[in-house]
Specification:
Elements: H1 5-16, H2 18-37, H3 47-53, H4 61-72
């Protein structure tokens, strides 16, 4: 695969866009939740433990809470 200047510009601007970064963070959290929660009972799922296990920054606490809640519902 060959990359050209347009690919580099797209990559650079995408990484700098908060909208795309937030969407990527949400999708990453959605991918991680099953690895954490699949062998647990609902009462064993712990937001703090999940965030610590995957080194998720506190700035994404609300996203984690929402996505875990959606996952178990």
């Amino acid at each position: 695969m060959q990359c050209d200047q347009d690919d580099a510009i797209l990559s650079f601007t995408t990484l700098l866009s908060p909208k795309y970064e937030q969407k990527a963070n949400v999708n990453a959290i959605k991918l991680l939740i099953p690895f954490y929660a699949d062998n647990k009972e609902i009462d064993q799922i712990n937001l703090e433990e999940f965030m610590e296990l995957f080194a998720i920054p506190d700035s994404l606490r609300d996203v984690c809470f929402t996505e875990i809640k959606d996952y178990v519902d």
